[in-house]
Amino acid sequence: MYLFRLCPVAGLVLGVVAASSAASSAAAEVLFDCPIGAQQLSVALTGDTATYTFGPQGAPEMTISAAPRGLNYLPWDGMGTSMPEAVQFAKAGTTYEVWYAVQKQMDENAPLAPTQGGVRVMQGDAMLADLVCTAPPSVYALERIYDAKLAAGQCYDWQSQSWGTACAG
């Protein structure tokens, strides 16, 4: 008899746990992370929001959040031995371009070259700062921004090297 009465309660508890689990599945996915001296540079994706942070670990001085649809993601063009990717966040006329470059391993017996990365700070065409990671990035998965832009109905036109909504197949 008690088991029967507990079933609705168990269902309610399971429902709450499932809802809580779904909410936690929207936890931040770190797409890029590296130190620049005493500062930490990071890009994360939480649901449909990408966030750029820069500053001391745990207390960033700069945070910019935007929907991936509003970001300019620059994919690797398939050329050369360096495979760079970048994403640009904008705030008050200043662009913060987080980038990384992976070297293609041309010889399978050669050691992997360390990944490089950093952030370029620009106003228009003027470079204000070009900060390079002081240790290789621990995470470099900016291509997830590409996936998020596709999911938002955008497509990348390789010929014009720009994002739109009506690209030729």
Task: Outline the secondary-structure elements.
Layout lengths: L1 H23 L4 E8 L2 E8 L2 E8 L5 E5 L5 E3 L7 E10 L2 E10 L12 E8 L2 E7 L6 E2 L2 H9 L3 E3 L4 E3 L5
The pLDDT mean sits at: 83
Number of helical stretches of at least 4 residues: 2
Radius of gyration using CA atoms only? 21 Å
- SSE-based structural type: alpha+beta
Specify the helix fraction band. 10-25%
**Sequence of strands across the biggest β-sheet:** 4-3-2-1-10
Strand content bin: 35-45%
- Reading the helices and strands in chain order gives HEEEEEEEEEEHEE
Low-confidence stretches: 1-24
Let me know the largest β-sheet: 5 strands, antiparallel
Sum up the overall morphology in one term. globular
Number of strands: 12
**Number of separate domains:** 1
How far from one another are the termini?
62 Å
Description:
The chain has two helices and twelve strands, in the order αββββββββββαββ. The chain has 169 residues and is α+β, with helices and mostly antiparallel strands. The chain has a five-stranded antiparallel beta sheet, covered by helices on one side. It has a five-stranded antiparallel beta sheet with strand order 5-6-7-8-9, covered by helices on one side. A two-stranded antiparallel ribbon has the order 11-12. Strand 3 (49-56) and strand 4 form a beta hairpin. Mean pLDDT is 83; it is low at 1-24.
Features:
2 helices; 12 strands; five-stranded antiparallel sheet; alpha+beta; 169 residues; globular
